[in-house]
Amino acid sequence: MAAKPAIVMVHGFWGGAAHWANVITELHRRGFGSLHAVENPLTSLADDAERTRKMVRQIDGPVLLVGHSYGGAVITEAGDLPNVTGLVYIAAFAPEAGESPGGISQEKPPAAFENLAPDSDGYLWVKQDKFHESFAQDLPEEEALVMAVTQKAPLASTFGDNVTAPAWRAKPSWYQVSTADRMIHPDNERRMAERMNPRRTIELDASHASLASRPGPVTDLIEEAAGA
After folding, report:
1. Cβ count within 10 A of residue 69
2. CA separation for the pair 30, 27 (Å, rounded)
3. Where is this region: Disordered (predicted)?
4. How many whole angstroms separate alpha carbon 168 and alpha carbon 180?
5. 69: closest CA among 44, 42, 93, 45?
6. How far lies 87's CA from each of 67, 109, 154, in Å?
7. Which one, 7, 136, 184, 194, has least CB within 10 Å?
8. Which residues contact 147 (CB under 8 A, 6 or more apart)?
9. For residue 174, what are the contacts with CB-CB under 8 A and spacing of at least 6?
10. 106, 203, 119: which is closest to 156 by C-alpha?
11. What is the pLDDT of residues 83-127, one digit of tens each?
12. What are the 10-residue block averages of pLDDT along the chain, 228 residues in total?
């Protein structure tokens, strides 16, 4: 049996690498030994893609990239490295060349769009008192509170950064749609998934934070991709 690939997980806006905690423990329980989670600066798509590339280049052997939310744009941009064998999108952006997360969101605004608030330094936040209902309505209130207080805000300009050459055009992909997502419109997720012609698309009755609320089926999809 072939050795399991390394898994590199890429977080999105308003979170950090620790958002993958439940998936990490589930992957470890299933025998995945080479697990890595990027901590993106969220300062530009170019910066975040380069941070991800640096981590991938440190790994010998095949790598499966897994992106949540804006992390999907990052793996789309950074997934062209030769040892990347596949891409898994978890309620994530999968832009085409010349598209940005912001542009996709404006086409079909998500339910929580009005709960985003810029600050005077150019960072964009999810309002703390709206975080639970916006990002993670299927998590316990206390868990969502910790996410709200520790959220990592992106520079708002990052929303407008365009993907140059989408890796999903050349690499096999898998996609998980969150049907109760309030941060990316579920129909946007379905459209992005359909056009990349993934090996499998699954739909979960989950919030945007499906990686935290539904780690079992999310890990099932990652495990399937790793086995392919």
Report:
1. 29
2. 5
3. 204-228
4. 25
5. 93
6. 8, 25, 23
7. 194
8. 14, 15, 19, 131, 135, 136, 139, 209, 212
9. 86, 87, 88, 89, 198, 199, 200, 201, 221, 222, 224, 225
10. 119
11. 999 999 999 999 999 999 999 999 999 999 999 999 999 999 999
12. 88 97 98 97 98 97 98 98 98 98 96 97 98 98 98 97 98 98 98 97 98 98 97
What pLDDT score was predicted for residue 159?
A: 96
CA 174 to chain centre: 12
Tokens 């999809």 -> residue? 221
Other beta carbons within 10 angstroms of residue 203's beta carbon come to 15
22-42 per-residue burial string, b: 16 or more CB within 10 A, e: under 16 = bbbebbeeeebebebbbebeb
Residue 114: how many other CB atoms lie within 10 Å:
11
H/E element holding 210? helix 210-213
What is the pTM for the complete model shown? 0.97
Strand partners, 85: none
Q: Is 20 exposed, middle or buried (0-12, 13-18, 19+ CB in 10 A)?
A: buried
> What letter would DSSP give residue 50?
H
Q: Distance between the two ends of the chain, CA-based, in angstroms?
A: 12
Assigned token pair, 102: 């912001």
Q: Please provide residue 97's backbone torsions phi and psi, each rounded to the nearest 5 degrees.
A: -55, 130
